[in-house]
Amino acid sequence: MINEAFTGIVFAKNDIPGIEFCNLGKELSLRMQDFFANKNMLPCMVEEFLSEIITDFTFTNADGLKYLALENIAILFEPDFGVNMDSFIDKASKGVCLFIKSDHKAENNAYFPFPDNKNYYIDLTNRPLRQIGYPVEK
Fold it and tell me: How far is residue 17 CA from its own chain's centroid?
């Protein structure tokens, strides 16, 4: 498993005992429901709400691991939201272990939430990375 000293990004295929995942799509949608009508405000509000979510969902588990665990992160790629993925990943993983639950693992220093569309990705170059629960490829 991941020890309390690890800071970086962990992609996980399944739930992890002792780790509480935040459904980012649901949480962000709930916080933004009053702002969808005004597309001009969306990027500003999304940035503010993402900062709040990072704060509200950063925990320390029983093993002393400080973490933020997110699932359903595809919402971050909504063009109207204007999320700077590098900035978000840097903020979300600063000083903590950032768990991202996904059916798709990272490959070649990048994570593609939509494997058939290489236009949307998270650059993982120079970021500590681990992956758990994915089949080992031969």
Answer: 18
Residues contacting 133, CB < 8 A, separation 6+: 12, 13, 14
Q: Which of 45, 87, 84, 50 is nearest to 70 (CA)?
A: 50
Q: Is the residue at 3 inside a domain?
A: no
Q: Between β-strands 110-111 and 122-123, what pairing exists: parallel, antiparallel or unpaired? A: antiparallel
* Calpha distance 23→40 (Å, rounded): 25
Q: Classify residue 46: in a domain, yes or no.
A: yes
Total domains, the chain: 1
pTM as predicted: 0.90
Tell me the pairing of strands 110-111 and 58-60.
unpaired
Cβ atoms of 52 and 91 closer than 8 Å: no
Query: Residue 83: is its pLDDT beyond 60?
Result: yes
The range of the structural domain enclosing residue 13 comes to 8-132
